[in-house]
Amino acid sequence: MQDINQQDLESLLRPQLGDEIIVESFTSKFLTQPGENYGSTMLALEVNIIKGEDKATRRKFNLVAKLVPPPGFLWKIFDPPNTALKEILCYISVKEEYEKLQKEKCVPKEKFIDVFPRCYGARTTLSKEIGEKADENTVLLLENLKILNYRLGDRKKGLDLTHTRLAVSQLARFHAMSIALKILKPQVFKDTVLKACKPYNLGLNDEEMRANTPMLINVVKIIPECEMYADRVLQAIERCIQQELDKSLVPPCELYATIVHTDFWVNNMMFKYDPNDENIPVDIKFVDFQTIIYSSSVRDLIFFLYTSTEERIIPNHYDELISLYHDNFTDCLKLTGCDTSAYTFQSLLDEIDTFAPVEANHILFMLTPICADKDEVPQSLSEIDSFSTVFPEPNSAQKWKTKQFIIDFVKRGWI
Asked: 185 phi and psi, to 5 degrees?
């Protein structure tokens, strides 16, 4: 399914807005530009509804309809029958339990973690029940954050320090709240977070996993400052592939094991700004939860820092940002009444040393689509039949980000 109709909208909206509502009219257009989203089809909807016995009450809703991508290569990579369900569970169960626990613990408004956009309806099939598998009829209806003045950052340039601090602080609380549920409500955690974090099938065999390695190594070799590290990077990529194929090689340490976004980069967060200063972000929402897993929290943190920040952030502010993450992480746990004595700053540094190397291949691979120029990527999801279709030649943005990543990973002993 790559479209949506009036009957779809009414059946999706009625559980939230009331059985008596009628969709009087709606418009639909593509929300995202080429290169901004590969895992789904995104539609911007303007929906006019009428309700009430006299049908006199009219309201307009600006929504986003998230549909699965067209069948083909992307189904193999993103496994929509599982990943679409995982995202829906985030909105209908994980979000609810986060809010419930914070209200029970009287978390103050200024520290209340609320990174999920509002969900207006969801289905995994044409059945009214949310099933164990999704199909091509999957729909997720969310509030349109763009209409609420949320904006994306510049993926090629990366986020400045102010935006990075906000993202890191809220990411820490997003992770900590899951751990609080694990400690305080283990059965609820199992029924919500762990269910949403169910493993999915990447769909690639050994040969396909390694097909992109020559391309990635070539990027390293054409950067003069990094060419000498090509063999070390190759070894790091091979270790990462082995770990992806065999998860038992690097099992998560329970202390920091939590819900992990796995795709936490610029295009998967949106910022709202101070009405008096459009350069000061005051809120953030996270999007695209299809590939969440149960793993180490620091994987999101390291992936974000090395893919999504401005050039000067890592060399000048790395230590500050790690401390900021730790402060927010432990503060969130304390607010829910959890014992934080085991979560020392050194324990976080040890966790980073263990799991930062696991992200090496992920970072290097994703820098290509993140830095790609929009006119060099496919104009339609149906055009994508391999990774080579998606990834153009490395540009200047990709080169400087790759250089920063490799030099810093080498310095820290991660590759």
From this structure: -135, 70
DSSP designation for 191: I
Which DSSP letter does residue 227 get?
A: G
Residues in a beta bridge with 64: 44, 142
In our burial notation (b when 16+ CB lie closer than 10 A, e otherwise), range 374-385 reads eeebeeebeebe
Q: What is the pLDDT of residues 207-253, one digit of tens each?
A: 888 888 999 999 999 999 999 999 999 999 999 999 988 888 888 89
Considering Cα of 391, then 393, then 397, then 401, what sign does the dihedral take? positive
The residues near 109 (Cβ < 8 Å, ≥ 6 apart) are none
Burial (CB count <10 Å: 0-12, 13-18, 19+), residue 415: buried
CB contact set of 113 (below 8 Å; sequence gap of 6+): 98, 102, 107, 170, 173, 174, 177, 332
What tokens appear for 271 in the block?
Answer: 């910022």
CA 223 to chain centroid: 29
Token output for 321: 């940002």
Could you tell me the end-to-end alpha-carbon distance of the chain, in angstroms, rounded to an integer? 43
Q: Give the span between the Cα atoms of 179 and 173, in whole angstroms.
A: 10
* Torsion 411-342-99-320 (CA) sign: negative
pTM of the model: 0.94
Q: Is the pLDDT of residue 1 over 50?
A: no
Question: Measured between alpha carbons, how far is 43 from 29 in angstroms, rounded to an integer?
Answer: 5
